[in-house]
Amino acid sequence: MASRKIYKKLLFYLGIILIILFMTIPVYILFRVSFAVPEDVLTSHPKFFITRFEFKHWQQVFNSGNLWPPLYKSFIVATFTMIFALVISAPASYAISRFDKKIKYAVILSLFFTRMFPNVGIALPISVTFLKWNLTDKNIGLIMAHLIEQLPFIAWILVSTFETIPFDLEEAASIDGAGRIKTLLKVVLPVAAPGLAVAAMFTWLNSWNEFTYALYLSLSTKTLPLQIYYYVLRGGFFQQAAYSTILTIPVLIITFALQRYIRSDYLGGAIKG
Amino acid sequence: MKFIKKHYFEILLVLPLSAYILGFTILPIIKTILLSFHDKSTGALGFSTYQYLFSKKDFNMAIINTVAVTLVGLTFQLITGLFIAMSLKTDFKGKGLVRSLVLLPMGVPTLVSGVTLLYIFGTQGYLNELLFKLGIITKPIAWTSGGIKNIFVIAIADSWKVLPIVVLLLLAGLESIPSDVYEASAIDGASKSQTFFNITLPLLKPSITMTIILRAVDSFRIFELPKILAGRVTPFLATYAYDEYAYNNANASAAASTILLMIIVIFMILYFKFVDKGGVEYGK
Predict the structure, then answer these.
(1) Which CATH superfamily is domain B56-275 in?
(2) ipTM confidence score
(3) Ranges for the ABC transmembrane type-1 domain (chain B) (predicted)?
(4) Average pLDDT for residues A179-196, to the nearest whole number?
(5) Nearest neighbour of A91 by CB, restricted to B13, B27, B160
(6) Which residues in chain A touch residue B168, judged by CB atoms under 8 angstroms apart?
(7) Which residues pair with B162 in a beta bridge?
């Protein structure tokens, strides 16, 4: 009996170890390749463990001049997408959270359904229209395209944030004679601020990683994900790894800093990353 | 009028968001659907674009591949996800660390997860090396050269990326099951497997429904991973739609997108009709 228990426990830990290996090894390999000596990995028998480092690929990446324009474009687009998404979605989410329960449910469900449309189906007419409006390759065009996905996403999160703020708080303010806009800015906004910040950061990440719309709307300029894709097509073995590492670093940091905020109702908006 | 007067403030707040979604999501989708029913050269209404699509082998393959990758991926994700979620619910040493490590793929962009799996599943990749070292194979296997192997590679890549989300969704469901239900079943002398199939699974159904719907829709639309891991050898609906667009064939691209939309809608209807008669519960 006792030995069977130990046997079971061993099996359990073995399962856990296998899962951890499955989850972590790909990330390890990415970092490993970006620092690898070519003979160690570019063979039919790649070495798994790191025995020596080489920074040549990194130097090439930083000196080639191919890094800064896409990095800059990705950063600008992600930041402005985040700002616009907040400005447009936050007031709307506040109003939705104060709706009658039935209407609220209907609105939330329709937000949910707009997220189910295939983005290639939306990107096609958008790219045709933006070509006409001369927005292709422009940052503002890409920001507008990213808002298509990010507005429902952030609204979904923010509705549940505003829901947790008790209505009594606003009533008290209005009894004290504050107008509705003043109540919103002085009472609701400060309480909601942490939730807004978390939602904003996830929006930033989604836009930073976004690939589909960027592919449809870029002819000569590149975002960081497009740059990675370009090296995948060209077979740039080490550039792939280095650029991927650069793209990953902010995502990894922000995701783990916000780990405890990732609640399951956030996932309803599906954090794709 | 009275309604507008009373609620002008709320309407003002919601207006920009609604206008944006209407103009940049609903309208484009309608445009795409309309475009798919127009003939490319004559512009006449009809099904000629669809006839063209279904006569192409690549497109039929794309439908099969898309459905296959969803089935394989979802099955793997649900089983593995459930195992991880259940183990994270029990207490053991180092649980916090394990939880953090399981969430690791969440911090890796989808595109990047495709690139890393390229290093693993490449012909000169680490999986072949592992199999070689274990003495299972003598010649490297071309994992990403198309066919059924490629479906599995993409399903695994997709699963790796989304497992954290699946685990968190299921874990939230598990944690919402009150512990006295388990106590009662233990008192009644239920075995572990009885408890699992008669208590855990039925009570977990809302979470499982949520997971399946979110995951299936994302999986039908799969785009980045095949773009990185399969190139043009294994078409999927979304990548096929892009290819047609890239060849300047907007009508065919629109038709492929419309079919993708149809598949998503049909899946949802079938799922709610036959599998789960409830609804999506918001905020579970």
Answers:
(1) MetI-like (1.10.3720.10)
(2) 0.88
(3) 63-271
(4) 85
(5) B13
(6) 262, 264, 267
(7) none
